[in-house]
Amino acid sequence: MLEWANIIAIVMMTLSLLMNMWRMAAGPRTLDRVVALDTMYINAIALIILFEIYLDSVLYFEAALLIAMMGFVGTVALSKYFLRGDIIE
Amino acid sequence: MTMLLIVLLPFLAIGPVWFAARFSRNASFYVAATTTGLGLGLLASLVPEVMAGNVFVDSWPWIERIGLNIAFRMDGLAMLFCILILGIGLMVVIYAKFYLTEDDPIGPFYAMLMTFMGAMLGVVTSENLLLLAMFWELTSISSFLLIGYWRHLPAARQGARLALMITGSGGLFLLAGVLLLQEITGSLELSVVLASGPQILDHDLYWAALICVLMGAFTKSAQFPFHFWLPNAMTAPTPVSAYLHSATMVKAGVFLLARLHPAMSGSPEWFFLVTGAGLTTLAFAAYVALFKHDLKGLLAYSTISHLGIITACLGMSTKWATIAAVFHIMNHAAFKASLFMSAGIVDHECGTRDARLLSGLRHSMPITFGLATLGALAMGGAPFFNGFLSKEMFFKEAYTLSQAHPYWPDAEYWAWIFPVVATVGGLFSVAYSVRFIHDVFFGPEAHDLPKHPHDPPFGMWLPVAILVAVCVVVGVVPMYTAESFLYATASPVTGYDMPEALHLHWWHGLVPELYMTLVAIAAGIGVYTQWKKIAAIGDKLPTIVGKDFFESFIEMLIEGARALDRLVDNQSLQRYMAYTISFATLAGFMAYIEEGWQSGTGVQTPASLVSLVPVILLIAGAFMTDFFQRKRLVSLIFMSVVGLIVSLMFIYFSAPDLGLTQISVEVVTVLLLLLALFVLPQWNPVESGWLRRSRDILVAASAGIGVGALAWGVMTRQQQTIADYYLAESLPKGGGTNVVNVILVDFRGFDTMGEVSVLALASVGIIVMLTGKKPLYPNQVMPFPEERFPLMLTSVTRVLVPTALLVAFYIFMRGHNLPGGGFIAGLVAVVALAMQFVASGLDWTKGRFKLDLVRLSAIGVLLAVGTGLAAFVWGRPFLTSGMLHLHPPGIGEVHIASAMAFDTGVFLVVVGSLVLIIRRLSRYQQTMEVQDKAGGNE
Amino acid sequence: MAFWLEIVVSFFLVAGAAFALIGSWGLVKLDDFYMRLHGPTKATTLGLGGILLASALYFNFNPDVAGVSIHEVLITIFLFITAPVSAHMMAKTALQKHFDYVGGQQDPLNHPRNVHTIQEHDLSGMDESQIPDGDEEE
Question: Are residues B840 and B927 part of one domain?
Fold first, then answer.
């Protein structure tokens, strides 16, 4: 049963990714695209975790952690770019 | 072993001499003098054996594959030159201490002098010809540094450059000549080459080898037509001129001729080329020397002329001519060095070197007057001086050659040219020697000199006195002092084919050479008395100034290169990329057409629908990066997506290290690009019409298809990859279970070491490039004063940054066995620090993060290289790694691989360089930030 | 694997994924930037928390897989701290740039209800020492 749940979860996350991509392509303003990017980072983390459960391996947690950290930094940098233009003052 | 020490000692002294200058000038002087003295002492221990006729050869293997060994030979010729280098070197070291003023930095001077000394010693004692070429180049470089010692004088810089260009090209020719000799004789060792004389002469390549070697020798010894760099090198300080450009470096060329004399002489080509060049130089330079007003210029041309004598003697190749050459090498070094130093004394005390302004100094500088006169008498070849003896031998040989000329059987009517030219040279030699003394020291006392002339301190005239004493002693009693010495030193040059005994007397009877000498002296004095009239005539003739000719030649070359460049290069990056990619694609497709492209027969794993979605996203992301390329920021965001998906795919294919690296690099890229984008236009203008865009799409599409087909073909073919080896050997040989990391820092560690050095250099380069520059298109920073550092962000980063740094450390420590490693850890640390910069600003963070980042990267590179070098301590090749097995109490067994140190180096370099780049780029923007009335900006 | 554990883990997996899906759906469907911001930042983060919880349960209580891993907890904490902050930054940016929003074609900064609490400082007449500086924290 776990396997089925895993697969369903993976399918749902994939759909989420596709929807994020749509928003990124379509967002009227650039900030919409930034939100979509941030969400894509989070969905990617979820996908990695699900993949780990599927494979029964603990090797990829650092990757997930790193994506979380990097995603945050990327989003903040982009927002600050919009806010002030000069991201490091 | 002793010989290695003699050569190595000056090199080892470079650091101490420079460092000692921090304490006092005297400290530096003592170190330099002690080193030279030690060298002389070591040499003295070898002298008795060499005088008895023994030859020492010491050899250590170095790079066997190209035949390069560290090999030294001490025979008579080498001993002579070592005495010259070390003895006159000591004199110059003493002289320089008193000559250089307080403003001249003495540490670098002595350091460069030591470099030169060591290099010159290497040239004369080298047994391996390739080693000789290496030391030869080193002398060119150190001479360049010494000539340009007074960097603030443009004449000095030009002179140094000219010298380097000419002697450097000569060095290239020498290298070619050495390699040709290796081709002919099969070895680079002198013992073999010197024994294969007949074989060399018969070979087809003899002509080419001869030309190359002669080019090397003539450029270094300033023979016509390569002489014009030497007068321009007189912008060097006088100690340098006395040492390099009279006694040692310019003698390197004739040393080479003397050294290879047994191997390459004896042929008509040698005779005509060498003797011809020598005689031409002799006459020409002596003539020009007479009319030079600068004392050092006069002495420079005189040096060229005397080198011409030595060259001509070596060209004549008879036993006695060769002995005369070696004798003149000794004598010339002694009196010329002393004369240069005297000229330096005059310059130092009077403030000018111009002979037209100087006169009547014999009253105010009696000691200098005495010493200079003695030196000049030796230079002119007056009896009872050493110059007389060697010149007599030269004249005798020239006369003998006119009677019996082996290479030119039917030349009775032409052969008289040799003694005539020799006499003319001697004539002018007398003339300028007399001028040197008469113009400067005799006549009415000059009153409008820049300084008040008086005798110099003891330390300045002592070296001159010692050298002059040698000249006089050898001149008066040569049979007791010089005979055995000359016998020992000239033996190697003649190939040990010496007459039974040398009888050096100064009276041989009424022989032709005596008449030549008398004619030369008389006519010389006569010419001198009329020289002003001759000079007036000479002024009316057009002059060819060698240096100007050379400079205009170089200008022409540069202009031609620029024209070619303008033709091909229009600075358009798009054009280059289009050319590169289309040609590469075309070449690839040619292969497909010729061989046919087939899909391989490997097993293909079916792709699940779920794994197709990231692929679709990847394609969509890449497509939209291009689609939105005019809005640069949007393009950047889509690039992030592409990076993220690629990272996901790495993880899908079980490559966690790659995934980690990819995502870190992605975000660092975004940060850097955002920093850059701030000062660039936010929109790409429409640059090209439909036609060109279609062409670009075509090129890109075909390249993509070609590469895709290539990738498909490779992946569908089963093959033995290198992965099996690494997977098997990673733990036993590399000490870690993370194969990727072990490959990076152990198996392919050399590569990584190169890359971190490049990264460190790039960061320094970026800093230098941005120094003092301002952005062209500044964006105004939006003026919302309270939003500069949003509170939420700042508070959260207080907690997050240390955590992120801890994660970086954790990833670093576990890198060898689990996914991670120095590079990823470095990137994470960089992102954490960048986060801090973004949240709290540069100044706040800099106040708390006080590391010198350039030093940090430098330490990182040193660690990486040091780990490799440490393997030498255990006698292993570079970058062999070892394992430490520690048993700290309480923790149990700990295995640390030495690659950990290497990884630390990588980590430090990454952190240092990238944070440096980020900081520098953000500082760059701040130069144009607009001041707004809220005062929120700086 | 124990049956009850399997049920719990599966539940969290599916629930978490469902939340994430709903969040992304909201990102697509909603009309206005501020509305769109809710979906990802709240729902997706919660969904991810659920998935991470499932993973924590799976890897720690599963007798077949060795070791204890607290990575998930770390990721969860990290995410719960940073997701609001990034949302805050984006909302702030939108505010400052006067994004239009559904329901009022007015700039929220100038809405009469907000005028007293959010003010743009008119600093032209003020003394230098009274102007708030951005980095006063330490």
Answer: yes
Distance (Å) from the alpha carbon of B749 to chain A's nearest alpha carbon: 24
* Contact flag C24-A32 (C-beta cutoff 8 Å): no
pLDDT 10s digits, B641-663: 999 999 999 999 888 999 999 99
Q: Per-residue pLDDT tens for B178-221?
A: 999 988 888 888 888 888 888 888 888 888 899 999 999 999 98
B659 touches B648 (CB < 8 A) = yes
Any domain includes B779: yes
Closest chain C residue to B788 measured between Cα atoms? C134
Using an 8 Å Cβ cutoff, are B304 and B230 in contact?
yes
Q: How confident is the model at residue A35 (pLDDT cuts 50, 70, 90)?
A: very high
Partner-chain contact C123 B934, CB within 8 Å: yes
The answer to whether C50 contacts chain A (CB < 8 Å) is no
One domain for residues B904 and B765: yes
- What local confidence, expressed as pLDDT, does residue B546 receive? 64
Domain range holding B709? 573-598+688-719
Task: Kindly state whether residues B905 and B933 are assigned to the same domain.
Answer: yes
The answer to whether residue B627 sits within a structural domain is yes
Q: How many folded domains does chain B comprise?
A: 3
The candidate with the shortest Cα–Cα distance to B811, out of C68, A66, A44, A53, is: A66
- The answer to whether C69 and A60 are in contact (CB under 8 A) is no
Shared domain check, B855 and B822: yes
Is the residue at B925 inside a domain?
yes
Separation between Cα atoms, residue B317 and residue B261, nearest integer Å: 8
User: Would the ipTM clear 0.95, i.e. be above it?
Assistant: yes
Query: What pLDDT, on the 0 to 100 scale, is given for residue C118?
Result: 46
Question: For residue B913, what pLDDT is reported?
Answer: 93
> By the CB < 8 Å criterion, does C49 face chain A?
no
Q: What residues of C are in contact with residue A20 (Cβ under 8 Å)?
A: 24, 27
Residue A35 lies in a domain: yes
Both B772 and B870 in one domain: the answer is yes
First to last CA, chain B: 66
Question: Are residues A34 and B621, on separate chains, in Cβ contact within 8 Å?
Answer: no
Looking up tokens 């000249």 gives B471
Q: For chain A, what is the domain count?
A: 1
Q: Are residues B897 and B832 in the same domain?
A: yes
User: Chain C interface residues facing chain B, Cβ-Cβ under 8 Å?
Assistant: 78, 81-82, 84-85, 88-89, 92, 96, 121, 123-124, 128, 131-135, 137-138
The closest CB to that of A60, out of B637, B638, B656, belongs to B656
Q: What is the mean pLDDT of residues B490-499?
A: 78
A17 occurs within a structural domain = yes
- State whether B897 and B754 are in the same domain: yes
pLDDT at B540 > cutoff 70: no
Cβ contacts of B640 on chain A, cutoff 8 Å: 37, 74
Indicate the range of B106-110, B374-378, B466-470, B688-692 predicted with least confidence. B688-692
Sequence-ordered strand ranges (E) for chain C = none
Please indicate whether, in this complex, the C-beta atoms of A88 and B842 are within 8 angstroms of each other: yes
The rounded distance, in Å, linking the Cα atoms of B502 and B323 is 9
Residues B248 and B119: their CA atoms lie apart, in Å, by 11
d(CA C114, CA B242): 88
Q: How many CB pairs under 8 A join A and C?
A: 157
Residue A89 lies in a domain: no
